[in-house]
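Obj: model holo form, ligand = NAP.
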Amino acid sequence: MSRKVTDKAVGNQPVRHSRIIIVGSGFSGLGLAIRLSQQGRDDYLVLERGHDVGGTWRDNTYPGAACDVPSQLYSYSFALNPEWSRSFSKQPEIQRYIQGVADKYNVRDKHVFDCDMTGARWNAETARWEIQSSQGAFTADILISAVGALCEPNLPDIKGINDFQGEIFHSARWDHDSDLSGKRVAVIGTGASAIQIVPAIASKVAHLDVYQRTAPWLLPRADRPYLGVEKLVFKHVPGVQALSRAAIYAARETQVVGLAKFPPAMKILETIARAKLAIEVRDPALRKKVTPNFRIGCKRMLISNEYYPAISRDNVDVVTDGIKEIRANSVVTADGVEREVDAIIVATGFHVTDSPAYETISGRDGRTLAELFDEIGQQGYKGSAIHNYPNMFFMLGPNVGLGHTSMVYMIESQINYIADAVATVDRLGLRTVEVRKDVQDEYNVELQRKLEGAVWNTGGCASWYLDKHGNNTTLWPDFTFRFRSLLEKFDASAYETTSDQPTAAAV
Ligand code: NAP
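Output (holo structure tokens):
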């Protein structure tokens, strides 16, 4: 830990140097920061573009926002919370939990808030990352991207959308000054966000049009408030909460069999979903409209007990004709029908495989991540490193995503790996560390081989899991405990290294 956080002036421009810079303080960046602090380090900074920790849970404040994974599991293993009010927590409670963890582990003063990284360039001569941000220049020996995959709203390219005169906002940028009561509202999209927004607003708007491009599969949501006695037991009886967490983990992990190994097994869940649809949507015409035409699991499976009742209301229409254009006060569909609206909620997801952040990071050969991914697709090694980007690690990089269980489990696996990587770099006195191309290529061939038969690739749907090359570069194709064991220790032999110390060697 030789080089610490320092300020120095270059010309008139002060440049802050830190041994390690983490970009982003959602679940992943914050968790890594805590681990670095626990290792006794204070030579790191977290650059966070928002005004607080929390990432996607800070940003997604739309009505009805809640997690699809039970909180017992969707929380850090080192910071269990016996006070969860219900089995599937809502966004405000999750955000309060994240804030509380940041306070408890005392890492807020390692953050630079309202600091938007606008560029990062590898300087081979100095072996440092040169970072530009809304708060000036930084340099770092090791750069860690923890910007997340669900942070850049994807705005649909619909003719006339910019000319709409009413209120219009993305689900992840909810306008809380807007009062939708008594208004005619359109929701574009029927993904995880939309199916929570629709029931939350349906009863207060005058009329709601839900623009559905693809009908999603819905499963029941086993959500309930925790009893006081349960919370007491979680708090005071050792091991009970950990046991509850383990049981949820094991139950969820069984889905991997159908999702990744043997898709016909998904028939079991499809039968449950079809029964739910038949019970909750009584109108045959509506039921036909919202019946999916692909194998369950191909797109993210959604859970809700309120969506079907909401779209069955008299003041809600599901519109399945594609949107042709948006005019000053209306939405026009391909069949020529024009529907007047006062407000449009754009729930069309995020830039996942084409994040704008990729355009700002230039590696060893000067190429940006966007240029590299445009050519070969999102490829990395263990979701944590990318060839051509020395001394850089990624939280939630390529093929780390999941559709069935807690991302916090994957995040903690990566924390183990990256924290060990940083410790190894120090221990061996390494100047640079970059994953070998042959190792990365081999890793990706194996990943794609595993994905070939998975439901995401074979289930007959189009989804953001697949990139423009048709490769699934977002999801982990196996049991998550295999990811955990793969990332248990940093494998320096998979990396090309250079050293300040002539005797240092890779382990
Ligand atoms: P999403 O899953 O990507 O869904 C976007 C929706 O918008 C889809 O229905 C999509 O239709 C539609 N759409 C996209 N572009 C369109 C266009 N040009 N015209 C019409 N429709 C269009 O986005 P999301 O709902 O925000 O969810 C994103 C991810 O966030 C989820 O997969 C999940 O990982 C996470 N999330 C989790 C929760 C939770 O835990 N409860 C809640 C919200 C979000 P197609 O299906 O045809 O593409």
